[in-house]
What we know:
The complex is a heterodimer of chains A (156) and B (267). Helices cover 33% and strands 16% of the residues of chain A. Chain A is an alpha+beta fold and 156 residues long. Chain A has two domains: 3-77, Beta-grasp domain (Ubiquitin-like (UB roll)), CATH 3.10.20.30; 87-155, Orthogonal Bundle (DNA polymerase, domain 1). The longest helix of chain A is centred in the last third of the chain and has 15 residues, at 141-155. The model of chain A has no long low-confidence stretch (mean pLDDT 97). Helices cover 33% and strands 24% of the residues of chain B. Chain B has eleven helices and 14 strands. The termini of chain B are far apart. At the A-B interface, strand 4 and helix 3 of A face helix 2 and helix 6 of B.
Amino acid sequence: MGIAVSMTVNGKAAGADIDPRTLLVHFLRDQLRLTGTHVGCDTGQCGACTVHVNGRAVKACNILTVQAQGAEVVTIEGISRDGELHPMQSAFRDHHGLQCGFCTPGMVMNAIELVQNHPDPSEDTVRAGLEGNFCRCTGYHNIVKAVLAGAAAMKR
Amino acid sequence: MRAFDYHRPATLKEALSLLRKNQDARPLAGGQSLIPALKLRLAGPPALVDLGAIEELRGIRIDSGTLAIGALTRHSEVASSRDVAMSIPALARLADGIGDRQVRNLGTLGGALANNDPAADYPAAVLGLGATITTNKRAIAADKFFTGLYETALRPGEIITSVAFPLPKRAAYVKFRNPASRFAIVGVFVSEGAGTVRVAVTGAANCAFRARAMEKKLASGFTPEAIARIKVPPDGLNSDLHASAEYRAHLITVIAQRAVAAALAGK
Ligand SMILES: Cc1cc2nc3c(=O)[nH]c(=O)nc-3n(C[C@H](O)[C@H](O)[C@H](O)COP(=O)(O)OP(=O)(O)OC[C@H]3O[C@@H](n4cnc5c(N)ncnc54)[C@H](O)[C@@H]3O)c2cc1C
Ligand code: FES
Ligand code: FES
């Protein structure tokens, strides 16, 4: 019943024989031990599990690992460079865009792709763009500030 | 999830032959409705035929007065397509309002139509524009496609390949959305084309339907006022924790007027 899957995760080849039922988020967390990608709801609602598959932000709890066959996958562990935080991560830290931090990996991954598609986002674009990511702590205000600042920093 | 065999064919032909050999197998497109159903064991097919690698099912083209969209085209691709924005901007905006960015990055037109959720957005556009759904076997008119709650005219093993939307003179979609799920509590798609007006309602009943009384009024005067006095009967409309049937009936007239106003404003 096992299916051989292979893909690139954070620039490195990854593969395994897996049960086709395995969700991408479980492959990343349980097999590759990339536990930065969180499971908040397991029902496709909260966005805590957001990763990039071929450059698109998707909810890793709502996609089968086998659907990512041959894909380029990037998780929160794969965005810093040479020990330096990604500008979006720095913006979340600088603007208090997190409290408990549980939603943060998904927020950051979605925000990065949002800005790649809208390099100069308005506040409305950011708020609409984050509709699929829930935060139970911050009230969103500082997350929006952080994404706007992160967008400006990503241009530099 | 119950166990299933998984196939990832590269061509439509291969996919069809897999579905023929395995009568209970289900196609998998973006998975944004099917995977939640598998998790809840609302569906437990013995095999999935993943359409994700079939390039011939993707793409957006304008030819001879219609906009043709491949079944596997994602909501985000429709939302950001220049061809869609230029030919039927209301359709691009509808796609941009489905769920959230992550859902739009995986969910597809064909999957949304085959699924026929009572509160889904695309059925309103397909019905409201009088589109034609093409499968591997035949062409199905929008008016014949949506047959009931999560039910369509598709037969087992039949795959939607593309949808052709005739280009309207003007059109708009307005959704009164559930703020948590973004699905429609009531959504109305209106269009005015060559001598025809169509008004399609989603979210209110077991599947999308046309509001013919409104169409008649709008045909003799395409203004919000023309339909302001229409009272939709609540019989047969959905009642749930989000809205009663009476409230939905009231909303249909309100939202339809807003949709006509938006179409006139070119929004
Ligand atoms: C959090 C969340 C919010 C959402 N919000 C909205 C919303 O606001 N509005 C809205 O309209 N939708 C919403 N959706 C649903 C979303 O639009 C789905 O993408 C869509 O309903 C199904 O498309 P899919 O490609 O993911 O199909 P899948 O889930 O892969 O398949 C759905 C069904 O269609 C069948 N199928 C798929 N492709 C074909 C084909 N080409 N031919 C024949 N059968 C096929 C499958 O066998 C299955 O039965 C939401 C989903 C989620 C998870
Ligand atoms: S854990 Fe995936 S959306 Fe909540
Ligand atoms: S910081 Fe706690 S959930 Fe967002």
